[in-house]
Amino acid sequence: MSHKVIEIQNLHKEFSLKQKDSGLWGGLKSALKPKFKKIKAVDDISLSVNEGEIVAFIGPNGAGKSTAIKMMTGILYPSKGLINVLGFNPGADRQKLAYHIGSVFGQKPQLWYHLPPLDTYNLFARIYELDQKAYQERLNFLVEKFQIQDLLKTPVRKLSLGQRMRCEIVASLLHKPKIIFLDEPTIGLDIIAKQHIRELIKYLNEKENVTIFLTSHDAGDIESLAKRTIVINFGKVIFDDSTEILKKNYIKSKIIELIVSKPIENFDFPGGKIIEKSKYNIKIELDTTSNSIDKLLSYAMENFAIKDINIFDPPMEEIIADIYRQKQS
Amino acid sequence: MNQEKQYLSVFHYLKSKILKYFEIVKVHYFSSWAYFTNVIGSGFTVVIRIWIFTQLYTISYQASGATIINGQSVAMVVWGLMLVQSFHGATRPNVSRLIEDDVKNGTLAYSISRPYSYILFQLFAFIGRIIPKLFSNLLIGIIAAFILVGPVFFSVKSILLGLILLILGYLLDFLISMIIGLVAFWIEDVSALVWIYQKGQMIFGGAIVPIALFPDYLQNVANYLPFSQLYYGAARLMVNFEMSLFKQFLLIQLAWILIFALLSTYLFKKGIKNVSVNGG
Question: Is residue A60 within 8 Å of residue A40, measured between CB atoms?
Fold first, then answer.
């Protein structure tokens, strides 16, 4: 039986944001008598994660997902509530916990910008007090797995975003963490780089039994990786169940964009709703519960001069609106 | 046997901590070389400044008709200023600014969840950044001072004891700059504090006028201020050593270091409770 590695009870986080009127007078007033506005970033969250799970933690911008992750990793102190990660209280024992967890924050690189990744890895090996022989073996293994042999000695500033992200993940895995927190690991990556990162995350989970706690804006990350999804909005958990149920009940459509070289006169495909149309570009929302993307693409290829095709998931806001709608009904 | 085991585990514990911070010095040392022209440029700034000082003090001494004032010849003044400028010039980029940025952009918050002390990390990073510029400044500065005013006598004792004051001076500078940077937890911009600190160094830190040339009453005041204990004390004693002055400077330095170390630790602990990170 697997045991719980993360337990959160009634977690709250409030921020006080300084409010300032515009202009010189406003600045003076704010300096003499500052006004603060309270923002509830996380509002009474309770959840637990079992060892070896991949959990997707999703929500729109400002929903509180990164704040929650930061509290789990000891970066932020909670305003109220209890957190237990691998038996540690992250706020109080953050440095002890650091030896057992890894984190990758897509928008906060940990690699030294002007140095090759190898220098940062050597530094991390010392910081995490790794045995040098064990470190070398671990590094060789990760370098091969993540295919970064050619990148090790190149300054980070010269790497592409996808290459950099692979190197970032390696940095967070050197000390063999039991849990890895990934905050937007695929942000800004192209589809091939995204796919590569997803495969590596899967591998870590399956082969090393690493628990993965992942936030993402990308429904593709969630569908391909997580068995369980937690949706958060305005700091509250509004969905916590299997990804299959989320897909079945709430991700019922795909957006297909067709770019053509000759204008489209008439587009008629059952289940396909035109949501945007210009002379050489058309966006269709396809109900995937009763129609397949393959058929729509075959129809498009047969009838139009296709130059390019893009497929998107519905925006997160739409999925959340759907969850609320179903809850109310 | 048990005691032996204990000694061994203490040894391993200390070794891993020392290696950790040594690696931080190493990474920042190499990272500094990425700005090669900056490192070399810093040395040439020292040359321009001491050339101006040479003109200024040669004319001033000639006008006064004296060759020695308060025990200082023109050559001693110029060598002393060269050393202060070289020591101080190696501290850029400004630690206060780096800490302020870390506080504002959230890097500090991310750092505290790693297994090291943020203050020690910054201290050893500071050491790593100083080394290339210090050597470059000294090399270029010594050649320039030699050409401009000729040699002065340095004893091995004055260099070694001056070096102790220099190391403590860097520690003191780091602690004061750290405190200024940490104030960013509570105020939006620390520029005003940085400005005051820099001007304090300029006037009372012996960077333009050696404190030995101040009137007696002002010398007494300046010697007890932290500004003179950053780099002037080390430079003054390297060029013109006096044992009594060394002991006095050492005590003053240690007192300031204690005060600022306690204050920076207090501010850091209080500040991280207030951490808020953008995004989320």
Answer: no
Tell me the average pLDDT across B136-160: 95
A143 in the same domain as A65: yes
Regarding whether A259 and A244 lie in a shared domain, the answer is no
Q: Give me chain A's average pLDDT, please.
A: 87
For testing contact with chain B, the best of A17, A73, A76, A234 (most B CBs within 10 A): A76
- Whether chain A has a CB inside 8 Å of the CB on B30: the answer is yes
Question: Residue A175 and residue A134: Cα distance in Å, rounded?
Answer: 10
The residue in chain A having the minimum alpha-carbon distance to the alpha carbon of residue B19 is A126
In chain A, what percentage of residues exceed pLDDT 70? 98
How far off is chain B from A121, nearest CA to CA, in Å?
A: 11
Higher-confidence position of A240 and A329: A240
Nearest one of B97, B173, B176, B100 to B134, comparing CA atoms: B173
State the residue range of the domain holding A290: 252-312
* Residue A312 backbone phi and psi in degrees, to 5: -120, 155
Q: Are residues A122 and A83 in the same domain?
A: yes
Q: Pick the residue from chain B with its C-alpha nearest to A183.
A: B280
Q: Name which of A94, A108, A115 is nearest B112 (Cβ-Cβ).
A: A94
Give tens-digit pLDDT for A183-209: 888 877 777 878 888 888 899 999 889
Q: Stretch B252-264: mean pLDDT, rounded?
A: 97
CA distance A84 to A91: 10
CA B68 to chain A, closest CA, distance in angstroms equals 49
Are B273 and B109 in contact, with CB atoms under 8 Å apart? Answer: no
In a domain, A172, yes or no: yes
Label residue B133 exposed, middle or buried (CB < 10 Å: 0-12, 13-18, 19+).
Answer: buried
Torsion of CA B190, B195, B198, B200, to 10 degrees: -110
What confidence score (pLDDT) does residue B280 get?
A: 41
Out of A64, A66, A73, name the one closest to residue B113 (CB). A73
Angle between helices B95-105 and B191-204 (to 10 degrees): 170
CATH number of residue A263's parent domain:
3.30.70.250
Sequence-separated (6 or more) residues with CB below 8 Å from residue A14: A38, A39, A40, A41, A79
CATH number of domain containing A164: 3.40.50.300
Q: Chain A interface, mutation test: which of B20, B111, B113, most A Cβ atoms within 10 Å?
A: B113
Closest chain A CA to residue B117:
A95
Structure ipTM over 0.85, yes or no: no
Cβ separation of A94 and B113 shorter than 8 Å?
yes
> What is the total count of domains within chain A?
2
**Residues of chain A contacting residue B277, judged by C-beta atoms under 8 Å apart:** 66-67, 70, 75-76
* Chain B residues 163-182 within an 8 A CB cutoff of chain A: none
Q: Which of A227, A249, A271 is the last residue of a domain?
A: A249
Asked if residue A327 is part of any domain, the answer here is no
- The Cα of A214 is separated from the nearest Cα of chain B by a number of Å equal to 13
CB contacts of B23 in chain A (<8 Å) are: 122-123, 126-127
Residues A102 and A209 grouped into a single domain: yes
In a domain, A282, yes or no: yes
Q: Quick check: is A40 in a domain? A: no
